[in-house]
Amino acid sequence: MTEKKQANRYAVVDLEATSSSSYAKIIQIGIVIVEAGQIVETYATDINPYEKLDVHIRELTGITDQQLAVAPDFGQVAKEIYDLLEGTIFVAHNVSFDANLLAEALFFEGYELRTPRVDTVELAQLFFPTLDKYSLVNLAQDLDLELEQAHTAISDATATAKLLLKIQEKIQQLPKQTVGQILTFANHLLYESRLVIDELYPTLSDYLPEDIINVNGLCLKKIAEQQPTRYLSKNVARNLALLGLDERPQQLAFAEIVEKRLVEDQERVHFIQAQAGIGKTYGYLLPLIAQGDKPLLVVVPTKVLQQQILENEGLKLSEIFHISIASIKSSRHYIKLDTFWRTLERLDDNRLLNRYKMHLLVWLCETETGDMDELKQKQRYQSYFDELQHDGNWNSQSLFGEWDFWHRAQETAQTSQLVLTNHAYFLEHLRHTNWMKERILVIDEAQKFMLAAEEYASQELSISACQALLQSKLDRAKEVLETRLLEACYFELQHLIEQFQTQGKRALTAEDLASLKQNLAELDDADFWDWVALLEQDREYWLEERRLQAQRLFFLRSSQVDMLDVARFLPSTKIFCISATLEISKKVNVADLLGFHEVTHDCLPSMAKSNQLIMYSRHLPDLVSMNKAEHAHFICQQLNGLIQLRRPILVLLTSIQLLLEVSNLLEEMGISHLSQHKHGQEMSIKRRFEKGEVAVLLGTGAFWEGVDFASQPELIQVIPRLPFENPQDRFVKKVNRRLKAEGKNPFYDYHLPMMMLKLKQAMGRSNRSAQQKSCVLLLDNRLIEKQYGQQIQYFLETEYQMEQLSQETVVDRMRRFFKENSSG
Q1: In this predicted model, which residue has the larger pLDDT, 584 or 26?
Q2: Is 62:156 a contact under the CB 8 Å cutoff?
Q3: Residues 157 and 39 in one domain
Q4: Where residue 68 sits, what CATH number does that domain have?
């Protein structure tokens, strides 16, 4: 009879110290002993460091100098601590700091701490691979660890002990085979963290959990059977009540318009305009699902908004009504299981890469989609995840043919009542994907569809790849004529690059490309036929440069001269185009620009908002005369003043370069913030901002129109520059040409109203309900000094409270607004 192995004894430790440096002194110790899955003992004491605490440490921990003055010095408690730790496994969150500091303090008292170390950060990253952040505060929120008083030693140690227990529970829920595979890579963990896994592995059942299947050595989550759809009432208000949502008059009025247009016999395109913040998504989803005679396809501008609808409205509809939903993206977002399986067999030296193999083994037991966007930490070794991207090719005979996530997503879309996708994917796959055609189509944010169509109509070829192919053929060429033609083609491409680098020549004419076109045609090589086909068309051409790690890559891009007639591409089905910005001006609307003729137009009247205040200063610097550094400095000055209000601040910028400049300057000023293009993907930094991790979020792009901030009851929005389109943008130039040809004024009939509508949409990001309060600060002097500024002011005043005031009074006015409108 074998003797039962004694359970590991874990000492979960947290220290508070005078600083985070190696010279820090301990001021507080918390120790929690965990054994056999239970907390069995706790220990806590203050330590007198015999020096004053700085303000930051006092504020962070709540510990005072008076409290420490009566505490024992470390020597008085050293033996007690050492005896408690002896024979244990030392556990901490970011273990190196706590273990090194405590071991050094004990060493100077004559005790040598040689316990193995376990880091709950790397274990949490491994066993909870889809979380956004792994700080103890974030994990406490996500995993319900009951962190009562963060940054006090015993509270943090207790929360870390509960985290260790959660990790142990998670290991025990995993298939034994998966845990065994993890152990083959576990030596790549930084510390002796594998001891936690080693202890539990022998206790795991050899039988697979009911929801897991073993497919050629990989444990995958079974797809849950779709439950029968529950009855949806034809009464939208009743459905909203079942979803646990309050009625909103504007939302119900919007849904009534959708219902009215749905029952029309004619297959016309229905344009419905309604302001942001009324709940348009439910307003069209509920009547179209309940009363439509076909399944529904919803097309939104960005993958961020697609994910947002899936996680919010989609999840609710699935839980309450059992609506079957599929969310479809480009194949590269999905993991290719065959490739991942091969990487498990491959010996890799990189520690981080091998840790990601372990993460993915856990994730495959959880994911039903295989969408790698669920993994929030992959940017730390992006090249490995690029390797795992699905290529869009499906082979039924492959090891994982039946379980191929990309193929399964396509099959699921065939039968789902609701399919979500984005503008770009929809346009690229419309002609080749049958499940898109037999559905009611909703184009959300329809004004953005024009831009997606322009991108779809453009083509791109890699000059760098073409040059490499030309050089390869030159090395093997035998005939003189072939050699001369290959050399001429290479020279022409190199000449284009040199002109771009030395003269900044980006736009190309037919004359610039004539010699290249002729030489490639004479070469008559099938490897270059795509180049010949592109250059034979009557199109606009330009060069683009991109950096990939240390490489500079060059591309030839092209698009058709005129705007794309989008209407002729769309299926002959019932189509709803939804937006807050369908009527751009009295002379221009989105339906015309998209090429639709048989249409209906409905416009829901806007309602005045009392819960949002728009402010602009009288004396603002001239934006045009400022360089990027000066503009960033001005913005940071404003933010530095607003931070004292202790409310979340969303800053919407129109330039990535300016955004990064502001971010760098905020870092120099010591102002904690999150920045798009720097601190992670849009949805990730949005979630971190909403959790209150930092007070300031810098965003551009999708944050203007596609990301809602509904969870903060009070919010400040800063808009440094009016969001006019770039006059040098190719699509803008096309619109200008078309409107001029129609006898219209491009600026006053299109660009100015388009900017105002974009501004209005941006304000709607922070006004998602009547209970939410927000202040918007406009910092663009053109609002006052340009002739069209009066028009912008009048446009905003019809719907918002607007006030002009001096810069010195902005903070006080915001403070009063929030106080006046507080529910308390």
Answers
A1: 26
A2: no
A3: yes
A4: 3.30.420.10
In angstroms, the CA 720 to CA 4 distance is 68
SS3 state at 72:
coil
Q: Are residues 29 and 120 in the same domain?
A: yes
pLDDT tier, 80 (very low <50, low <70, confident <90, very high otherwise): very high
Confidence of residue 741 (pLDDT cuts 50, 70, 90): confident
Instruction: Identify whether 266 is part of a domain.
Output: no
Residue at which a domain ends, from 542, 560, 578 = 560
User: Which residues are annotated binding-site positions?
Assistant: 274-281
Burial of 622 (0-12, 13-18, 19+ CB in 10 A): exposed
| Rounded Cα–Cα distance for residues 430 and 301 (Å) | 15
Q: Domain of 483?
A: 460-560
Q: Domain check: are 623 and 715 in the same one?
A: yes
Pairing assessment for the beta strands 26-35 and 9-17 based on DSSP bridges: antiparallel
- Domain end marker among 560, 579, 602: 560
- With respect to residue 657, please indicate whether it lies within any of the assigned structural domains: yes
Q: Tens digit of pLDDT for each residue in 191-233?
A: 999 999 999 999 999 999 999 999 999 999 998 887 888 888 8
* Residue 129: inside a domain: yes
**Annotated binding-site ranges for ATP:** 274-281
**Residue 92, number of CB atoms within 10 A of its CB:** 24
Written as six digits, the tokens of 228 are: 């029968």
Whether this model's pTM surpasses 0.90: no
Question: What's the domain count of the chain?
Answer: 3
- Specify whether the backbone of 113 is left (phi greater than 0), alpha (psi in -120 to 50) or beta: beta
Give strand pairing partners of 461: 556
Q: Quick one: 354 exposed, middle or buried, by C-beta within 10 A (0-12, 13-18, 19+)?
A: buried
